[in-house]
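Summary for the lay section of the report: proteins are chains of building blocks that fold into shapes. Here we show the chain for LacI family transcriptional regulator and then a coded description of the shape we predicted for it.
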Amino acid sequence: MKPTIYDIAKKANVSKSTVSRVLNNQPNISEKAKTCVLQAIKELNYEPSKIARGLSGNGFDAILALSHRSTHTTYGNPFFSDVIQSISAVSEENNFDLILQTAKTPEEELEKCKKKIQEKMIKGIIILSSTMDESLLLELDQSNIPIVVIGKVEHNYDNIYSVDTDNFQDSYDLVEMLIKHGHQHIGCLHAPTDVAVSNERLNGYRQCLFDYHLDIRNEWMIDGGFLLEDGIVGMEKLMQLSEQPTAIFSTDALKSLSIYKIAEQIGKRIPDDLSIAGFSDPLLSSLVTPQLTRIDIPTNQLGIKATNLLFQLIHQQFPEKKRVLLSTELTVTNSIKKR
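The coded shape description reads as follows.
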């Protein structure tokens, strides 16, 4: 049977309330009593339960992860499962529990967050993606709890930090690679632009075409939704145009997979008939042939960095910069043909 605070009090010859004050690091305890209690804890190998610590007034040792998007839009997306796994691993290393939250509406999401904060169920929040509408961040910032966003944060907040990659520049570099291979007719299969990462990547695509004095054609910029099925429909739409691009830039792994899938179905050879460059992840990159000219998003590193940063903030260690950018690497393969 595991020892209790009653066992500690008996062994240390002090009251139960004295043991409780020592466990919660409260003042007004004599050094002699504190030493006796700590020695008894060590000898009995006592570990206080998380529930007991939470009810004591200091709150629970837990952090909250929320996607800031509906579950429908994250279904089947490997980014979210991978990043949650990384967050969970770092939380476990810090002896913290991880709570995953979903909500049907932004209003419900905010209400759930506020309730957990008020009830001291959590000591910090990680938001797995950012949107163009930062009203949730504005509300949560007033709760004075550490928050780390994986994605771009446009405004400055007191308690909100961010970890991201340079999505604009990465997109620019990928499109520039297509241009340097001689392509002047470049389409784009992208995710909805109410999500900040998609907006940044589409802007990088547009800016690169503009800088190289190439046409920016609206009919070649296709919203492929959030799901693989939506990306497939978008790619089909692009391939049904009377005038088609010779190359396509994809803004995420599911869009890249959609391009390969439809190209195979309609008999377009990559790269002979259609060149491709875009964002991916290591697993997808190993499954398609030819391998994609790509930037693999460092999903695990984003999760690890964001969670370590959150624990810094929980422990009152505040870095000077509130925005952290992780580096990426452009991998050039034979998915692009010179023209």
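Put simply, here is one thing we learned. The longest strand covers residues 160-165.
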